[in-house]
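Lecture 7 notes: from sequence to structure.
We start with the chain below.
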Amino acid sequence: MTNLPAPFVPLVAGGDGLDRYPAAPRALAARMAEVYGVPGDCVLPVRGATHGFELVFRLAARDGLSVQAPDAEPYKALGALYAPPPGDAAPGAVIVRALGSPEAVAETAARIAPALLVVDEGLAEFADAASAVSLIEAHANLVVLRSLSLAYGLAGARIGAAVAQPETLARLASVMEPGALPEPSVRLALQALDPSRMAETGQRIALVRSERERLVGALSRTMALEPGFGPVIMARPSDPDAVLAALARFGVPADRAGARLRLPVSARAEVNDRLLAALDLAPAPTRPHRTGEAVRDTNETRIVCAVDLDAIGPVSIHTGVGFFDHMLEQVAAHGGFSLRLSCEGDLHTDPHHTIEDSAIAVGQALKQALGERRGIARYGFVLPMDEANASVSIDLSGRPFPVFEGTFSTPFIGDYRTDLTAHVFRSLAEHLGAAIHVTVTGDDDHHKTEAVYKAFGRALRQAIRIEGDAVPSTKGVL
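Predicted structure tokens for the same chain:
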């Protein structure tokens, strides 16, 4: 493959640099090493775990060795592609599909050396078992394959990693094709693994784990289930065709593998409730939760924000500006909805960008969650706090119009700049699509600021409340 660039840049948005063939993804390898807790030279990025398996089969076939692997996809298909020469080829690698205890992994690695022990940890983030990556320093023949497909929502990007000692990775890299990882996939992986995303990713994984436990408890009363973990439940119903038909009527996807069914586990309870309702294990959900997400990446901030207007928790705010975190917590608590926000901002410069961009992200997530704004109360509130009095009038009209009347004599409360309060509500109005009128009076700037955020939360609580099914406008649309 030539290293010369294409004769012109692509006619696609965000295509800067794609006119050149992919370079070695060193930044991605370094970030993966941080996430997995290993030295930087112990990670080889690959195109998902399947690509890692393929490299193992290639290596064994090149050296005239065999691979012992589970008799299932994708191992079976790869074994057919990279079959060793005729005869009794010595084992070059053993692939272990299920996660085992560190003691079992260490014993197996020692027993089969020098053959490679390849541990498939594609779902490790969803499991309680300790990762085998902690053992690579002691076992030169150990390779652990990780994946960003399900735990990070990047199944379509095809990104994973082989984790092993540098010498072992060099052997795998020797059979890797040039430019193996597409540049767009590398960029997406770096965004997904950014520190600003990790709290929300952890929350999502925790939700899947808790929802899986709930589903297993309900499903096990009517069908046999296989042990496991992660966002898929392997079930053996007595009549798989009938179960598939019932799920299809409720729009629930499922895959069949012989007599078994792969049932999906969502991080959203209302989605899983549809699965249970399809099998007469729960009443049909009346209305899906109103959820919204916003991801904002600039040269100054990296933000992920998620809201659920129909859940009271969790509430988790991490911006690096303590008082602002507390204020957003007040909005969610008094608004009666779940709000999760994580921001990595240029606080070494000033909190301005962090506060402004976080407000933009909250507004965008709320706007997405409201959707057509069907059935909402639309309007809302006044709130006193000691000597301070805050009035927040809100109209979720879809038309942004911010008004802020009030002044602050104290420039900072902690690291929070009080002059940014008006800016926050302007950003919220513009990106939520709402008229937000704020008036605040009082003597104590802490009280005044907190009263404004609490009153806004209470105004939102009233305005987002479901009162029916109609759009609250004579126009029929907001």
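Points to note: The radius of gyration is 27 Å. The chain has a mean pLDDT of 92.
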